[in-house]
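COURSE: Structural Biology Practicum
ASSIGNMENT: Worksheet 4, Part C
STUDENT ID: 0417
INSTRUCTIONS: Below are two proteins. For each, the amino acid sequence is given first, followed by its structure token string. Answer the questions at the end about the second protein only.

PROTEIN I
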Amino acid sequence: MPKGFLNSLTFRLSVLLAATVAVTFFILEREWFLLGAAAILWLHALQKVRKLFRRHAEKLTIMFDAIDNADYAFKFATEGRYSHDRTVNTSLNRITQIFLQARKVAIEKEKYYELIINSISTGILVIDDRGFVFQTNGEALRMLGLPVFTHVRQLGRIDSHLETLITNVRPGDRHQIALSSERETVSLAIHVSGTTLQGKHVRIIAINDIRSELDEKEIDSWIRLTRVLTHEIMNSITPVTSLSETLLAIHGDADREIRNGLDIICSTGKSLIAFVDSYRKFTHIPPPRPALFYVRKFVERMRQLAMHQNTYPNITISLHVAPDDLILHADENLIGQVILNLLKNAMQAISHEQADGHIELKAFCNKTESVVIEIGNNGPAIPPEEAAHIFVPFFTTREGGSGIGLSVARQIMRLSGGSITLKNTPPGKLTTFVLVFP
């Protein structure tokens, strides 16, 4: 009889069953001597069965320990084994492969969802009730200015109000907060929901930068207001100016005082018309016609134009473009208006009062592959109370200024899909405007 059959579970169970029948029979027949022999056989068969089950249980323990430790390369031998061992080992190996396949599917789904989360423009934070961060995406790290985010306490280094807010928010809450950094000030909208993850209650915090939305609504409001004002003023002033010109032409021999009065009315009306007409630039910017162009050649041309108009010999303009073949996709003419206006403002800010006036024009590609153009000057810093309003139409602190230049620049950048901001810089540093083209 083959040795493999003698060691099989079927044979051992058969022997155990036969021994059990024999013991029962000898007890009923009172054959005590034969009962002893049958009992020894029964105990021996029971031990063999228990040993076989114990060995299989140990295999199960080994298999689950390996799975628990993510060791899916572990396999039981199937070659050169008894048939029942091969069957058991093959089945255990199959279970391991099923777990491995399930794990692969879970990992693929996790990577898929992570890719989706990192592709959206909404910042995502998953935080437990103790402040530990379970998950975050790249957009949230970018908004917060953090390379790594593991605990809410890290937000205290950025803004103590933000740390308090994120610590105390609860599912269903909606908040809005302004966050200032060295680069810029952003307006964040925060929405909170909750769920259970790995047996722990967590809060899912969605963060959106609504600065562009607020700017867009503000600009649209100013455009509508400016259109109404210019329309009403032009409708009122144009007839008065025309009438005064007509009266001057008809009554050329009128009293000198009357002629002077009519002449003043006419000239004042024309000046007011010209003044109002300048504000139409803010509401009638042509749609951009973007095209590819090299940034270095473009900014060199802007520097030459600015220096040609420069009446301040004490001012120098330096260029830094990296890489040399940096390319921008935008309307070159419209962006040129923005650059020239910023260079002109920088020169006026420095004026003749500073002997070593310096303007720095930089262009580069940031971490998000956006093209950035920075224009900084070493003139007097813009006070914080004024910096908050410099992009508001008609706001100006310069005598004779219209308050339209930066408003038009922001409108052009908005239509171009970009942004313009004043960098928050410490005292002693350059006053810098930043143009970003995503």
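PROTEIN II
(use this one for the questions)
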Amino acid sequence: MIFRRLRFLGFMLCLGCGLSLVSCAGNVSAGSAKSREDAVSLRVLSWNVQTFFDSVTDGGEYEEFIKSKTWGNEAYVERLSRLASSIKTLDADVVVLEELENEGVVHDISNFLAGEWSSKKVYDYACFAKSDDCAIGCGVLSRYPLENLTVHALDIRTDFEMPRMRPIMQVNVLKGEKTLVLFVNHWKSMSGGENVSEKWRRSQEAVLCRRMEKCAGLNVPALACGDFNRDISKFKKASSSDMILLRSDPSDDEGRVGTEVLSPWFDLNQELIGPGSYYYDGEWSRIDHFFACGPVEITDFEPATGGPWCDSESSIPEKYKIWDGKGYSDHLPLVCTVLF
């Protein structure tokens, strides 16, 4: 049952061929927003919620869901309730979720978030996108209007068959008279080997670079977020400690041409903020990110550890386990405030 009407965006598809990527012109870094009296703020949550399928089996789900004897409507409803409770606790203005099965899951999450007494807490706007050949996509819930959704998909024709890859979503978030361009990412996974799969992430990096460079050139605030499946240490460092260089050419190891963007993983002492966002094989990594460019600042950034979605002592994420229905996700949620 739909308790209220979500305002969903349709999207326009843009295809990019990795063989003819155009280099970004110049280096652009995030500008200052605090000094402007008209600056506004948004609290943003980005979270890979780990294979969030609905209870209807249509054949596109991962094998463990199709074969599971425990997965069904009851388990799905419980998982929805658990996620909605976490989102309410984190209390962000814009919620970005990776690994959702379809638009219907976004509707269901919205229903479980309904019932707020304060109109300022309601998520009235939403959008979702995924490739036709992918089992999962990304969704955005927002307390503020969304407009001009575009998805940027790769179409690479080489001797090597391009694997399934999720498009990069681009959508405007409007707060008053201000606009923030939001890029939602879920880059190619490291399945098959980190080095083997890296070339596909490099192509996605080039697409994001071109889009963010365009925003910076127009002096428009832009924020990229999501699961990039690449640790912050594997990005090309830029001119200052808190900046990284998005490369516009997938074959450019030296980073000769690209766009400088701000990463909040680095604190004022140029140290990496802990604990990380993903814990695997006994090690933390930082593969989930916020990147900013143009007249925007990122403040109050943290991998959120103050909730039941992680162990209270070690902060290790409570991975969702289909066999017993317990857990949340194998990623920590990232939250930050942006000023623009």
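ANSWER KEY EXCERPT:
Q1: Helices lie at 63-67, 73-90, 103-113, 194-217.
Q2: The mean pLDDT is 90.
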